[in-house]
Amino acid sequence: MREIEPWPCFYRFRQTEVEILLHHLNLPRVNTILEIGCGIAFNAVLLSAYAWRYIATDLPEPDPQTHTRGMFLAQRLLDIVGAKNIELVDCSATDLSKIESESVDVVYSSYVLEHIPPSYRDRVMQEIHRVLVEGGIVITVVPNFVERAWNYLRHYVKPPLRGIYRVCKYFYLKIGKYQTHPFVSFIRIKSSSSEPRKINIFPPPHGFYESSLQELLFHFPGRWDKLHCRNKFKLLRKFTISWTIPWMSRHTIYLYEATRGLNKKLGGRFPFKYLGISYCIVAQKAKI
Ligand SMILES: C[S@@+](CC[C@H](N)C(=O)[O-])C[C@H]1O[C@@H](n2cnc3c(N)ncnc32)[C@H](O)[C@@H]1O
């Protein structure tokens, strides 16, 4: 499984997220769960115990623009773990015509809607509404504005810190007798990307927006709520499943795992539910 892990500690992050999600949901076993944008289908493996039939969908071919890794990786993972009740279906969230109307009890998506351009999101919600049985629920996990705000911080705070580091390093190497100094290593912040700096803080695939500010505004919880409400869903619950800093690494996974009890306790309460880096909405299909 290690060779198809998308980034370090991915399995541990997603496992912790699903654990917190299930704590908030209290999900009974249902007939059919449909997952949209399943990625390598790891969440599908974890959640498939809650359905007799689990349909995991995604775009088929790898595409960095949409963060698509390719269905072949999902198939590889299912072959490795031997999940029997998971079916892989290649289709876009904007066209779920391969799924029958009113045939699904729960629709789940984790970090998918933000990759779909805003002008197509209503279409996705309408498709979800169509495939759900009456009273069926949709569980949507998306990044919150807090996560987007971190990008501003990284963008504006990192360059001055890097400048301080360079000055310290210059003087230290000139004056001192060591190659590195603990203080210098401490304040050193590595560039996360070797690409030239872009003016838009959020480059594609998070860049379907006219400006960074517009992207930030699109990630306010109210926007995600409205998307559900105007497409005939009744909001049932809102909570956060992630409070750590939006930096998925070997170091932050410890912080995330250590604080999961706190997250379970407070993640559904005001104002904490709006202050995590993720935002989760549970909504029910309302009658038309
Ligand atoms: C950040 S990944 C999340 C993957 C997985 N759900 C997880 O939580 O690890 C975003 C996923 O959204 C999928 N995606 C993007 N645009 C899509 C679309 N129009 N229809 C279906 N899936 C889409 C990508 O293929 C990718 O698998």
TrEMBL record:
It holds the Pfam family Methyltransf_11. This is Methyltransferase type 11 domain-containing protein. Residues 34-139 form the Methyltransferase type domain. One of its GO terms (molecular function) is S-adenosylmethionine-dependent methyltransferase activity. CDD domains: AdoMet_MTases. It comes from Candidatus Hakubella thermalkaliphila. InterPro entries: Methyltransf_11, SAM-dependent_MTases_sf.
